[in-house]
Description:
CATH superfamily of the largest domain: Glycogen Phosphorylase B
Shape: globular
CATH topology of the largest domain: Rossmann fold
Number of strands: 13
Strand content: 15-25%
Helix content: 40-55%
Structural class: alpha/beta
Radius of gyration: 21 Å
Largest sheet: 7 strands, parallel
Amino acid sequence: MIVGIDARIPLFTGRGWGRYACELIEALAATEALELRVLLPRGALAVALAGRLRPRRNVQVASVDYEPSSPDDYGEAAGGIKLEAVLGRVDLLHSPTRFILPTNIRPLVATVHDVAPLSEPPFKLKYRDATLRAIDFIRRHRVRLMTVSEFTRQELGARAGLDVKDVIVVHHGVSDVFLAAQEEDAVRANYLLYVGGAGPNKNLERLIAAVRLLGKSHPIELVIAGDRSWDREDLRSALGAATPQWIRLIGYVTDEELAGLYRNAAACVFPSLHEGFGLPVLEAMACGTPLACSRIPVLEEIARNAVAYFDPLAVEDIAIAVRSLLEDRGLRSNLVARGRARAREFTWARTAQKTIEVYRKALEGEG
């Protein structure tokens, strides 16, 4: 089987989409069960991935200029490139996001991470039109779909009106860098860690208010890690007129640096109102970091009983959940053990194998 993967969008945007695409492509290449033809944009993330892929005999990599200004510009930024010419003969084409750039290749496979622009309330509203066009394309061209969670699969039916009976759930994996063992009684620094963006669905304003409330009895620093290139205005809105001294913004970090941040944190907090998967939850559990997160369906699907849950709309409830992790050593130990066990169930090798199953179903559907 020869599979084309158009990774321009996820590798350009980075973040969760970028990690998913990089990890999946490398895991697929490692199976040696298929040949890959991968199209990348230019940029540091893509260059690093290409360097890791090129020694593999079953992978061919091509790179092109690709710099969209927003999801509305995804198609136009492709510049009329003919995927058939760049990738050569392939049996199918996989887009690692819901957005499929112009191509005549069939069959098509796409991974849907979320439909947040169609949610209620409508998070990422500015991307609603682009998402509606993507869904229309998926429907008209009978694209074979996989989602990263059962929650997102259900949302595709409820919000996008798609028939989801043939949509397959393929969870993310967790990278090896986050699985290295750490002593249970290791001394942790006095900070809470938040990893992610700053859009409205991330709920940073309530997190900041909760840490401010918590600070009256437990003075503690809030470390915010994550690429800020797409949501600087959202972050500034969440922070207010001036950034409090107890908040530290560290921006983009490498995987190794991120793993260290997780392992040294007193606790990790994930207050999202809407997610498609919630990869930082899985990473924190893998690192053995006590975790408090929103009680929303997708995070309950991923974390199960391995975290302290809170109502993400209630500032006091967020503060209470975090305080319980700081004060109750027995609770921390219990959740850390459960979290590590749960995280071990998610591997990129398993993600790759289930993705290959989706490819086979797509080819069977064409026959």
